Amino acid sequence: MSGGAQVRALQPGYLIVGNWKMNKGPAEAPALADAIVGAVGSPRCAVAICPSFVSLPAVMARLEGSPVALGAQTCATAQSGAFTGEVSPTMLSEVGVRYVILGHSERRQHSGETDASVAARIRAALDAGLRPILCVGESEAQRECGETEALLSSQLKGALGGLSGDQMAKVAVAYEPIWAIGTGKTATEAQAEATCAFIRGQLSELFDDDIAAGTPILYGGSMNAQNAAGLLSCPNINGGLVGGASLKPDDFAAIVAAADRLEAENHVG
Ligand code: PEP
């Protein structure tokens, strides 16, 4: 990997985000939210959980007054209009959503999201006051063919190119190698760090060093209670996007606790 960056001075505080994917409808989601709020306690780091659209109001009711923020798993490219079946960023904001995951590989694979549509979603989300979490990442075949850097570079440029510095200050990037999502096959700390350093270098080129240094770069891909501390201690990893383990309150809380310990040691945030 080339173009990496060492940026401890401006490192953002840790952000741990749970992606519940298509699990936990309104009947089950409130109990999981309660369990997560109870298990994480009063974290130093930022924490968010992202249920499905239909569970957002029920989960928000349980998160009121807690340190856990609400996130969504995608949003529309516009705030209203003739987009049957879509949910706009403004609507998400109305129910209390603060973060929105955009360009997740499962959305790119199954729902036709492209760099261009992700770029439009990011802008719409920012216009509604949401904080986008842009997901980028390569397949196993792309990594084996040495295409990772070119792919990440075009995903980042395609989704973020043209944003202002003020807009970019609200964006987080999640590096999610597709081969590690839901597979139990985590990237090694060296792979994750090298790739996140590359991403930060790309952000320096697209914006500037300060913006790159201040952008939270999360790792996602089978993060769990056992591997979280090692991954989160990498200098260019500022948090985690957590799928499977976010459905298990104790495991998710252990990841949050690992981030908290590191945040206390590093005096970041
Ligand atoms: C994800 O859904 O973004 C994810 C990283 O899932 P998992 O943690 O299950 O690999």
Provide the descriptors you would attach to this structure in a database record.
single chain, 269 residues, alpha/beta, TIM Barrel, 8-stranded parallel barrel, 42% helix, 14% strand, globular, binds phosphoenolpyruvate
Describe the structure.
It is a single chain. With 269 residues, the chain is of the alpha/beta class. It has a single domain, classed as Alpha-Beta Barrel (TIM Barrel). It is built from twelve helices and eight strands. The protein has helices at residues 29-40, 56-63, 89-94, 105-110, 115-127, 140-144, 148-160, 165-168, 189-206, 209-214, 228-232, 249-266, and strands spanning 15-19, 46-50, 68-72, 97-102, 131-136, 172-175, 217-220, 239-242. The protein has an eight-stranded parallel β-barrel with strand order 1-2-3-4-5-6-7-8, surrounded by five helices. α1 runs parallel beside α12 and α7 packs across α9 (189-206). The chain is globular. It starts with 14 loop residues before the first strand and ends with a helix. The protein binds phosphoenolpyruvate (PEP). Phosphoenolpyruvate binds at residues 19, 21, 176, 181-182, 220-223, 241-245. Phosphoenolpyruvate binds next to β8.
End-to-end Cα distance, whole Å, is: 27 Å
Mean pLDDT: 94
**Main β-sheet, in a few words?**
8 strands, parallel, barrel
Bound molecules: phosphoenolpyruvate
Beta-strand proportion: 5-15%
Summarize the structure.
The chain is α/β, with parallel strands linked by helices. The protein has twelve helices and eight strands.
How would you summarize the topology of this molecule?
Layout: E1 15-19, H1 29-40, E2 46-50, H2 56-63, E3 68-72, H3 89-94, E4 97-102, H4 105-110, H5 115-127, E5 131-136, H6 140-144, H7 148-160, H8 165-168, E6 172-175, H9 189-206, H10 209-214, E7 217-220, H11 228-232, E8 239-242, H12 249-266
Parallel strand pairs: 1-2, 1-8, 2-3, 3-4, 4-5, 5-6, 6-7, 7-8
Helix pairs in contact: 1-2, 1-12, 5-7, 7-9
